[in-house]
Amino acid sequence: MKPTLIPATCLAAVFATSAAAAPICNDDLWVLAQPRDGLTLLEDYVDEFEELSGAGFQIEYLNENDRRAKSQADASTVGSFDVYYVDEANLPLFASSDWIVPLGDYYPQDYDYDDFDAGMRSVASYDGKQWFAPIQGGGDLMVYRTDLLDAAGIAPPKTWEEFKTAVKALHDPDNGVYGVALRGQRGSGANVWRWLPLFAAHGGEWVDENGDFAFNSDAAVQATKEYLDLFQYSAPGTQTGSFDESTGAFRSGKVALIIESAPLGAMSKDPTQSQVVDTVAFSPPPTPLPGSGYAHGFAIASRANPTEEEKACAGLFVAWATSKEQEARRLAAGQPGELTRKSTYESPEYVATFGENLSLAMADTGASTKVLFWQDPDWQELGNAWGIKLEEMITGSRSDIKGALDELEQLANSF
Question: Which of 268, 273, 346, 368 is the most buried (most CB within 10 A)?
């Protein structure tokens, strides 16, 4: 994909509209993150932040698992980092442990927090407060092959029942086309992630009206049955695959329809990654499925920032690093997977690069995006346990859905 470049004069005009701020930082900030192209690009503008704040910043990068482990160890003990990279999986632990502070009081108003995608703002909230500013994330999109649907005389599905009917009708493995691509690999962020919208669509709740766990509900049973049934139409390799396998199957032209995380949209329009650039279209998920929201972003550390001045300094960095201006730079640099703002999706530059259809879908899908996982520090352990049981049923080594869910509820009650 050759991105639409934004003229430097336009960027300068955008920066000129940002609120001027007196320098408020006395020392350089230390940031713990995981590698992202957008953050590497951010480091090219450290002088700009120094002029704005009075201090610079240093980013230490670790892969996801190591980043989670080190940030947890640091936040609970010495507090060496001013800003942590957090995500939907560890936000409940960091927020409930007071390792980070609510962002609202320290995120400068002029940076327009409400411009972030609604689904990402939902994921960045916990206990009624906002805790981080997104730098990557999204909800779900329905992505489909217009050529295959047109040839079969099938309209783009609007409902889940229509989606299932279309999947079955377009499944043609003899000609190398599969109805759908799912995730079978175990994990709270793998097979469970794609199961969650079905659980929610059937009315599933993690806790019932009496405050008791409800993981083995009729909704969970029905969602699991439907998920397992769809695997007979899923592309080869997806039975034990995750996001890479499911989206890779679609981008290689083997799949008719898919519901996947929003970054698949831009990837499908990138000719360096996709063979279906000219025959792909997008919409929010079919009703009543909500989108399974996720987000990664920057949060203000509490231990390293004991004073109000230090918190304000870290808040300024978080706002600057996730600003509209930085998004414009990422879009110009061809980094579509790290775009988080409504104004970006609706911009002429985004439309010129990815087309109006994806622009509208990205703007609309936030309204149906929700936090579908159990927002609790124990979620990862529980979600991963369910992922193992779900994978066993997908691969055929287990068949007792209700028994597996009963075991999951027993695990939840043991926490």
Answer: 268
Q: What pLDDT, on the 0 to 100 scale, is given for residue 22?
A: 63
Sketch out the chain's domains with CATH numbers. Answer: 8-138+294-354 (3.40.190.10), 140-292+370-414 (3.40.190.10)
Give the residue-averaged pLDDT of 353-376.
92
For residue 213, give Cα distances in angstroms to 261, 383, 386, 411, 415.
Answer: 28, 14, 14, 10, 12
Q: Which residues contact 211 (CB under 8 A, 6 or more apart)?
A: none
Task: Indicate the range of 18-22, 47-51, 328-332, 355-359 predicted with least confidence.
Answer: 18-22
**What's the start-to-end Cα distance of the chain, in Å?**
48
* Dist. CA 384–CA 380, nearest whole Å: 6
Residue-level pLDDT at 11: 36
pLDDT tens for each residue of 158-181: 999 999 999 999 999 999 999 999
